[in-house]
Amino acid sequence: MTCWTGGPIPRSLCAVIFVLGAVGAGGARAQTSAGEDAGASKPNRFLICEATDQSCLTPDPNYAAVWSFDGTTGVVVSPAPESGTRLTIETMSQDKIVIRRMDPSGCSATYSGTIHDNSVTGTVQWVCSAHPAPATGIWSAVFHNRPPTAPNSANAEGPSAQGLPHRLIECEGNGPCNGAWTFDGLSGTATWFTQSPIRARLTIVRSDPDEITIRRTDLTDGNSAVYHGTRKDDAYSGAVIWSTPDHPGVASGHWSASIPQTSCEAGAGLSTGEAMRIGQNALMFDLEDGAFGCYLVAAQAGEPMAQTAVGLIYYQGRTRDVPQDYKQAFFWLRKAADAGVYAAQRTVSDMYMLGQGTPQDRELSRFYGEKAAEQKRDREHQLERQQDREDRAADRAANTMTGFVMGAVFGALLFF
Q1: DSSP states of 226-274 as a string?
Q2: 407 and 378 in one domain?
Q3: CA–CA gap between residue 407 and residue 47 (Å, rounded)
Q4: pLDDT tens digit string along 25-70?
């Protein structure tokens, strides 16, 4: 497919080609039915040794304490639970970690260490309000519930690609699940569907049956992140540490991801909402045949955004199984336009002007063009007033996400 100049929305087709070429195969809260349970993070336990001398660096150190982490926050669980003591992983990369400890007594400590396979060694600085001068020492730790990695040698292989996911839809914190991650073995690409899509390279640096560590490098600004998570069924969750080129470990948080469903089986009895969600999953990964089948289910049930998607797929003739068909495109887009979808109104206006799939009619072209312009003005006023934001927050977030995905794939000029 090449960009062309004979149609009413050529720049959108160029946008499509840009997306497909740059992303290759590019995910929204997939399978939120897996929900928060599937996203629960399994705590990581550290066996801890700390001392003012070198004893924690001996071959058999005295691991006198156990720390337990859930994501980036943790507690001291032995030799006796220390109520009120807070542990926070402030920085973590593939080979560095910084942990801060706050005791209810007013004392604090900062543990800086280097990760070697399954262990950590480094320095600790203690500070107490009663003794302002800091004291320093040595600490070491082992990951109690994480198996050691293979030794680093010329013959050692990286994490096995066997059993790794091919696609994941990723969510960060409490934000939208708008990341589409695609893997080919241990390497992958990612796209986050925002108003200005973010793209990154992914590398799986560690993979065990129930744990995974992934490094992300953004393609535009050099920002990076390390995701460490545990697996439960078809879902992952855990801690993420974000870094900028000038500020390693600048922030931390939680992430989750799930293996998405990307096709709608005939006779599956899917609701309109389910078909829309699965269709959006497929569209985020450029699986347009799967997306078309799901959107058609929702379009036949009267969903205007699905009718828009079906109409645009027919209009652009983007798949081998769905060739360009202006009559079918006009049929579905006219329904969506009459239901008030801006993208459909704009395209129907152009189709009436050019006589595509319908007799040429300048009056109706002007009518739908004015409807689109009016709706755009109303939308701008609505954003300014922000009326009913709290009551409509969930619906607007879903519609905005759908608009971002469709805009990236079908052409940003069609969606606002």
Answers
A1: EEEEEEETTEEEEEEEEE-SSSTT-EEEEEEEEPPP----TT----HHH
A2: yes
A3: 50
A4: 333 333 333 333 333 334 477 889 998 888 888 878 888 888 888 7
In 10 A of CB 238, how many CB atoms? 25
What backbone torsions phi and psi does residue 373 show, to the nearest 5 degrees? -65, -40
Q: How far apart are CA 336 and CA 414, in angstroms?
A: 13
Task: Clarify whether residues 276 and 381 are in a common domain.
Answer: yes
DSSP state letters, 45-88: EEEEEEESSSGGGSSS----EEEEEETTEEEEEESS--TT-EEE
CA–CA separation, 144 vs 211, rounded Å? 14
The number of folded domains in the chain is 3
Q: Give one DSSP letter per residue of 99-136, joined into a string.
A: EEEE-TTS-EEEEEEEEETTEEEEEEEEEETTEEEEEE
- Assess whether 233 and 371 both reside in one domain: no
- 236 and 298 part of one domain: no
The token pair at 79 is: 């030799």
pLDDT score of 233? 86
Contact criterion met (CB below 8 Å) for 282 and 182: no
Report field, pTM of the whole predicted structure over 0.85: no
Query: Hey, what are 399's tokens?
Result: 């519609």
Question: 383 Cβ partners below 8 Å, 6+ apart?
Answer: none
Which residue in this structure is represented by tokens 């900028």?
244
Check: CB of residue 401 under 8 Å from CB of residue 197: no
Last residue of a domain, one of 236, 258, 280: 258
CA dihedral 161, 287, 260, 269 (to 10 degrees): -140
